[in-house]
Amino acid sequence: MPARTVVLEKLVKYNGEAHVPITPGEYTQLTGRAGRRGIDIEGNAVIQWSPTVDSAAAAGLASTRTYPLRSSFAPSYNMSINLIARFGRERARRSLESSFAQFQADRAVVGLSRQIRKNETAISEILLNAKCHLGDFIDYASIRREIKEVEVLLSRRDQKKSFDNRQRSRLESDLGDLRKSLRNHSCHSCNEREDHARFAERAGRLNRENEGLRTRVESRTNVIAKTFDQICQVLTHLNYIEGEKPTAQGKILTKIYAESDLLLTESIRCGLFDELNPTELLSIVSCMVFESRSSENTAPKMPSTKVSSSLTEVISIWAQLEEIESQYGVKTQREPDAGFCDIAYKWASGNSLQNVLKGSDMSVGDFVRSTKQLIDLLNQIAGASEKLRPTCKEGVKRIDRGVVAYLMGAI
């Protein structure tokens, strides 16, 4: 959210695998929030000094303003079902086909297609040099290639103790037949046979390269619309859409726009949260917005047996969804992360900030950001489920206090 001043504690970020320097684009995105529209004449961006901060690198980030725009857009379940509800499935698909992300994918396809055409021209020229007056040299070269493949296969099988004698006999028989076909071929007696073979091999390499390029073209053509189709298949499988309209349970999904939108909606539909009190509810749903920065695989602390058992049920639903998604070639729902469950529970129970963060490597800034995301998620659930609304509203009251309320109010 915009603020009068933006302070960057460090110029590195965790990208899911390692801590890496932020890019000029990321720096601009972060500092671009400085200055509230209609309130501030200008905004300020401050980089906190530390011995590890390179002043020249900081100046370079601040002065760099030219970098390519790359769309990371991908259809989500919430976005897809809202488009269907508003425009119908076919019109929604056409809209996605004209998106900037698809434009970039199509632009990449143009370059790949150009390379394919270039290779095809080269292949045609090479094959002229491989032409033999005695017969079809491409057919002859194909037999040579098959012989080489069988020879390689036999040499690899020799190294395996499990290699069956019948398999060896069959391969040796095939190899003998191929060598006989090679000797009997009309091009075998050509004086320029090896020269022709070199040209044929070059043409073969280019053909194999084109096969790979065509596969890449196919994977990028209409990729956004294809993803939308796959998402619609999952939604139909789960009875969230029927024909051109969302079902009753699909309408719940239209109001949940978190990253784990489908997992959260399924949890609501299964009544997983119905018997939880406000503190337990906010603790368990935090696993759908929080993402640990640490790469440690230690099991996070659970605040209560009830929260722990609820987490087990959430993970079970996630595993079922992952299996359904894999059937249709989709991967959108990340695994629940329970790293904030205990912290959120303690904060909602009235503990001081010092006690809440004691023994944790979480900074105050990360705590406030995660709590703000949790408040947003609780408000989404309140808007989607009338039954859970009172519990969610009470949960928001319990965590929207102290430093969280102060910093959110100052934004």
Keywords:
ATP-binding; 4% strand; single chain; mainly alpha; 18 helices; helicase; 411 residues; P-loop_NTPase; two-stranded antiparallel sheet; Sec63 N-terminal domain-like fold; two-stranded parallel sheet
Walk me through what this model shows:
Keywords: ATP-binding, Helicase, Hydrolase, Nucleotide-binding. The protein is mainly alpha-helical. Among the domains are: 1-64, no CATH class; 255-411, Sec63 N-terminal domain-like fold (Orthogonal Bundle). It is built from 18 helices and six strands. The strands form three sheets. It has a two-stranded parallel ribbon. Strand 5 and strand 6 form a beta hairpin. Helix 6 runs antiparallel to helix 7, helix 16 (364-384) packs antiparallel against helix 17 (389-399) and helix 16 (364-384) crosses helix 18. The longest helix is centred in the N-terminal third of the chain and has 30 residues, at 100-129. The termini are close together. The mean pLDDT is 84.
**Estimated radius of gyration:** 30 Å
Largest sheet: 2 strands, parallel
- Structural class, from helix and strand content? mainly alpha
Spell the H/E element sequence: EEEHEHHHHHHHHEEHHHHHHHHH
Share of residues in strands: under 5%
Query: What general form does the structure show?
Result: elongated
Mean of pLDDT: 84
Distance between the termini: 7 Å
CATH topology heading of the domain at 255-411: Sec63 N-terminal domain-like fold
Low-confidence stretches: none
Number of helices: 18
Pfam family, one: DSHCT
Domain ATP-dependent RNA helicase Ski2/MTR4 C-terminal: 241-409
Keywords: ATP-binding, Helicase, Hydrolase, Nucleotide-binding
GO molecular function: ATP binding; helicase activity; hydrolase activity
